[in-house]
């Protein structure tokens, strides 16, 4: 069967059905009739040669083919919306709004100076900056809420959908509260039973632990807490009996304040990349290219 080019309106219909749950609700959201929605999906299924929807008592649900197409359709629809906004801004003589996501622990590194430089160069650009957790970074890039994100990226993170532009590299180091007996330990085997504090996603901790252990086969710490708030993390890390993991520049700040001590153990050094992340299919606007230039110069 010969297959033609997918139509944007059909992809928009699929996204609307996924978001609203029924054909009727999708039709209302798109301001078209329900038969038009049904026809659009049938044409899309015919073009692809697969079933995208299944009817259920509560409405309709996507098949596995539908779910796969939906991920791509969301990106296409988000990019079209972004392009329409940019064209409208160009017609009105005003540069588009730029939305930047920043991971909680990356916000204090490079960002303040980069934002000041950007505002000096393009003061007319409306700028939205959101500080958020790692999972929100990915969701925001995927659905188009963020044009670009600045975040720490571990080797175990899944970033195949996105382009990652490295800004710098940082070691991940272990620390204990100043004066805590744990700060004197030099063997990883003697501290893996302590209470651990980790600042990235829980799903990434096993890969971090394997990298930290190297060739040894130590079991993972049984008590691992995750905190992605920089302020709360610093407070929790000061609790007695806690081993915390830090990007080296942030730990140096805590050590200068006399609150933490770096551990010197037999663990293997692990590293993080501070990077810019954006979708591979994103067409960079002038304002976005300017921001990228500002942060690369200051990082």
Give the helices and strands, then pairings:
Blueprint (H helix, E strand, L loop, with lengths): L7 H13 L2 H8 L3 H15 L4 E4 L2 E4 L1 H29 L5 E6 L7 H11 L5 E6 L1 H10 L4 E6 L8 E16 L17 E4 L6 H9 L9 E4 L3 H8 L4 E6 H9 L3 E3 L7 E10 L6 H13 L1
Parallel strand pairs: 3-4, 3-5, 7-8, 7-9
Antiparallel strand pairs: 1-2, 5-11, 6-9, 6-10, 6-11
Helix pairs in contact: 1-2, 1-3, 1-4, 2-3, 5-10
Shape descriptor reads globular
Topology pattern, helix = H, strand = E: HHHEEHEHEHEEEHEHEHEEH
Strand content: 15-25%
The CATH architecture name of the largest domain reads 3-Layer(aba) Sandwich
Would you mind describing this structure in some detail?
- The chain has helices at 8-20, 23-30, 34-48, 64-92, 111-121, 134-143, 205-213, 230-237, 248-256, 286-298, and strands at 53-56, 59-62, 98-103, 127-132, 148-153, 162-177, 195-198, 223-226, 242-247, 260-262, 270-279.
- It is an alpha/beta fold and 299 residues long.
- It has three domains: 8-90, Winged helix-like DNA-binding domain superfamily/Winged helix DNA-binding domain (Arc Repressor Mutant, subunit A, Orthogonal Bundle), CATH 1.10.10; 93-168 and 274-298, D-Maltodextrin-Binding Protein, domain 2; 170-270, 3-Layer(aba) Sandwich (D-Maltodextrin-Binding Protein, domain 2), CATH 3.40.190.10.
- The strands form two sheets. Strands 3, 4, 5, 6, 7, 8, 9, 10 and 11 form a nine-stranded mixed beta sheet that branches. Strands 1-2 form a two-stranded antiparallel sheet.
- Helix 1 packs across helix 3 and helix 2 (23-30) packs across helix 3 (34-48).
- The chain is globular, with a radius of gyration of 24 Å.
